[in-house]
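User: I'm new to structure prediction. If I give you an amino acid sequence, what do you actually give back? Let's try with this one:
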Amino acid sequence: MNRNNYCQIRSETKEDHRKVENLVRESFWNVYRPGCSEHYVIHVLRNDPAFVKELDFVMEQNVILIGQNMFMRTVINADDGRDIPVLTMGPICIAPDFRHKGYGLKLLNYSLKKASEQGYGAVLIEGDIGFYRKCGFNYASKFSIRYHDLPEDADSSFFLCKELIPGYLNGITGVYQTPKGYYVDDADVDEFDRSFPTKTKMKLPEQLF
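Assistant: Good question. You get back a string of structure tokens that encode the predicted 3D arrangement of the chain. For your 209 residues, that looks like this:
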């Protein structure tokens, strides 16, 4: 084994929090919007009752933090009146200098395996099918699961699902609910961001917001 390429995945500790928030900030800055909110989101989610502490991971290469992933509990409001427990995931990221080298897929497969070992039935996320298909995700519409507040004729190709227990969603139709902790106020984001080194917000053509 080449020690220069040694990496490990482990549970996040309290001592990691600020480093992880900075990693998330660097990874998402100006990607989906001018600046980003993901570093504040993860700061908030750690104290959310839906946060799954046992599924909160960091990836290191030679003790340098290069990636992270986390999970939240949520539900599908089934059309038959039941609430079906599921997970959602993220923010997940790999440091910009370590992308396109297989680290993201390794981290994702590891964390999904751990979620499966703990008995969770399915994971629903927003993401790019081109990447997430590599570890077994498919369009949530294939499972007859709808995204909350999305018009019936709207594009839902961003909404993905993976069963961790085969057949877990058989016979279930319904609406997925994003945990409320993911919705943060822009003013709170800006206040939190002022505690980090100054970075320039840029409006770019490929941004979503």
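You can read the tokens as a compact description of the fold. Here is one thing that stands out. The mean pLDDT is 95.
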